[in-house]
Design brief:
Blueprint: H1 12-26, H2 29-38, H3 43-56, E1 68-70, E2 76-78, H4 86-101, E3 107-110, H5 118-125, H6 131-145, E4 148-151
Parallel strand pairs: 3-4
Antiparallel strand pairs: 1-2
Helix pairs in contact: 4-6
């Protein structure tokens, strides 16, 4: 949906009326936004261009507000706060109980975090990340449940290709 408004100064009332029209015509503003994004001309090309320009200009903190960081060697990393892992353990515990009732052993295979030590994140970005520490806590609690763990930390991903 495209609106062309000539010689009109937007104000609160005008915006309210426009929103009513959009809601009536499209169902919701979110529906309109979703349709716009889904049919955006050359969307993937623009996304790739954005990445190339950010790389060219050395912009590594563009998505910092979303918790996404780009390292100096161009790895995309997430920084995570400390967590108790209570929710995750509760979910796995319920799942393990179901498996046990049906005579199935739990095998949990963990893909490693992109960086082995949380200090790498702190050195690179000056921020603390608890990715590995949260994972270590989760896996130690999972071991207490009695599941079989396969931790892939330290494996070379090139061997998998």
């Amino acid at each position: 949906m495209v609106f062309f408004v000539k010689n009109l100064r937007p104000n609160y009332e005008c915006t309210k009326e426009l929103a009513k029209y959009v809601l009536k015509a499209e169902g919701s503003i979110q529906d309109s936004e979703d349709k716009y994004v889904a049919h955006f001309w050359k969307k993937e090309s623009f996304i790739n261009l954005n990445g190339r320009l950010a790389k060219f200009f050395g912009i590594r903190s563009y998505f910092k507000s979303k918790g996404i960081y780009v390292s100096s060697d161009m790895w995309i990393m997430g920084g995570y706060s400390q967590t108790s892992t209570d929710y995750e353990i509760e979910q796995i515990s319920d799942f393990k109980a179901f498996l046990d009732e049906n005579g199935i052993n739990l095998l949990y295979v963990n893909e490693p975090v992109k960086y082995i030590d949380d200090a790498v994140f702190e050195k690179e970005f000056g921020l603390q990340s608890f990715s590995n520490r949260n994972l270590d806590l989760f896996l130690s609690r999972l071991t207490e449940l009695g599941g079989t763990l396969c931790r892939l930390a330290g494996w070379n991903k090139d061997r998998w290709a």
